[in-house]
Structures are given as structure tokens and as C-alpha cells.
Amino acid sequence: MPDVSVEIPSPLQECFLHCEVECVRECCGIDAITTDPEVIAAWRRVAGPAKVADALLQLAELVAVVEDRTHNTSSVFLNHYTCDESARQMLLEFLAIFRTGLATDMGGVRRQEG
Q1: Within its chain, how far is the Cα of 65 from the centroid?
Q2: Rounded-to-integer distance, Cα 41 and Cα 37, Å
Q3: Please, which of 2, 5, 9, 97 could form a disulfide with 35 given CB 3.0 to 4.6 Å?
Q4: How far apart, in whole angstroms, are the C-alpha atoms of residue 69 and residue 65?
């Protein structure tokens, strides 16, 4: 199965860095990043609606790549590789928590193109 390497762009990268409180990604991968809703909410409040909307779009694109089971997905930034279905599911669950946490209180806010 081929490998696809994904980059984590800003502002999503900023969100993950804000939540990197358990350890460091180089050591523990996604386990270094807390999924505590309060920590995610703190970043959401500081970042503001435009960055949050961008991060949500970036998350959706990332989830689409990870869900594609025709390849394995790797991320140097997250220090994670979907070597098997368990690792893929772990990453998808991690990303889903961030999607929920970032979407909270977004209401009708949408990213404006232009």
C-alpha cells in the first residue's frame, strides 16, 4: 500500500501546538496533544472565528485523506503513521475530537472567500 505524507498547515498547526501539553510530539506523537475540550476552547477563543473556520476546513481535508484506505497516511508534524486500521482509527478519533471542539459555538460563522 502506498504512503501519503500530509502537512499540517496553520492555523490548524497552531491549534495542535497550543494543545501539546502532555509531552512533545517528537516523543509521543498525537498522545502529546491533549484533547481536553477546555484547552481546545481556549485556543478557539484566542484565535477568533476566521482562524477557527480555516482550521475546520483544514481538518475536513485532513480527515478525507486519512479516511482514504487506498493508502497509509503519515504526518511528520503529528509523528503518526497509519500503519494499520487501529492507527488509522486512532488518528480519525483524535481529529474528530478537534472538529467537535472547534465547531462548538461557531454557529453561522463561515470562512469568507475573497
Answers
A1: 12
A2: 6
A3: 97
A4: 9
